[in-house]
Write a structure and sequence with these properties.
The complex is a heterodimer of chains A (about 120) and B (about 110).
Chain A lengths: L4 E3 L2 E4 L5 E6 L6 E7 L5 E8 L2 E4 L8 E5 L5 E5 L8 E8 L9 E2 L3 E5 L1
Parallel strand pairs in A: 2-11
Antiparallel strand pairs in A: 1-3, 3-8, 4-5, 4-9, 5-6, 7-8, 9-10, 9-11
Chain B lengths: L2 E4 L4 E4 L4 E3 L1 E4 L5 E7 L6 E6 L5 E4 L2 E4 L9 E3 L8 E8 L7 E3 L3 E6 L1
Parallel strand pairs in B: 2-12
Antiparallel strand pairs in B: 1-4, 3-9, 5-6, 5-10, 7-8, 8-9, 10-11, 10-12
């Protein structure tokens, strides 16, 4: 597609369940980022992929959070044993490394609500 | 580490009013600076950017000047429109290989007709 695509757009789950969020970046973009946007707060960096490897996982808040990327394209963010504090909008962005000028192209996000 | 401090909102203005949203930053080295905008129901999109001191970024009537001496990148527009209602995020990009963005907390702007 023309832009970054994320699914699902909305997810409501019960505390303790696992969730998977998917991101399909812009074709040809080798860099992929996950951010979290909590209510009333800015964007919090979670993880960065260059190709299929993740050289920077420093933002993952706990070991319940993991992400993978396959084929240098689609990425999945998995949250295990969800907690209410995980409720947020999860944003994916991609960038055309090495032409990267710092501009990221964002998807519309996946809104997660943990009851 | 890098950080961005952004003017807190929400900000409500009448159409054709002058807009300023303040942004200051802390960073090592010489970051690139950005303003992103999030319109209702849409993803974040780049509004403007500046990559070195004294550069002025501009787009859609918005401007921001990279001020190294005051570590600021304030967003301005001379005459806002209802369609400018959105959330505005100031951000910086370090010089590392990851070039991840560090964002401010966002400022909600509402323009009334």
């Amino acid at each position: 597609g023309a832009g970054v695509s994320q699914s699902p757009s909305n997810k409501v789950t019960e505390k303790g369940k696992d969730v998977e969020l998917r991101c399909d970046p812009i074709s040809g973009h080798t860099a992929l980022y996950w951010y979290r946007q909590s209510l009333g707060q800015g964007l919090e960096f979670l993880i960065y992929f260059q190709g299929n490897s993740a050289p920077d996982k420093s933002g993952l808040p706990s070991d319940r959070f993991s992400a993978e990327r396959t084929g240098g394209s689609v990425s999945t963010l998995t949250i295990q044993r969800t907690q209410q504090e995980d409720s947020a909008v999860y944003l994916c962005a991609s960038s055309p490394i090495p032409q990267n000028t710092g501009e990221l192209f964002f998807g519309e996000g996946s809104r997660l609500t943990v009851l | 580490g890098n950080s961005v401090t952004q003017m807190e909102g929400p900000v409500t203005l009448s159409e054709e009013a002058f807009l300023t949203i303040n942004c200051t930053y802390t960073a090592t080295g010489y970051p690139s600076l950005f303003w992103y905008v999030q319109y209702p129901g849409e993803g974040l999109q780049l509004l403007l950017k500046a990559t070195k001191a004294d550069d002025k970024g501009s787009n859609k009537g918005f401007e921001a000047t990279y001020r190294k001496e005051t570590t600021s990148f304030h967003l301005e527009k001379g005459s806002v429109q209802v369609s400018d209602s959105a959330v505005y995020f100031c951000a910086l990009s370090g010089r590392g290989s990851a070039r991840q963005l560090t964002f401010g907390s966002g400022t909600q702007l509402t323009v009334l007709p």
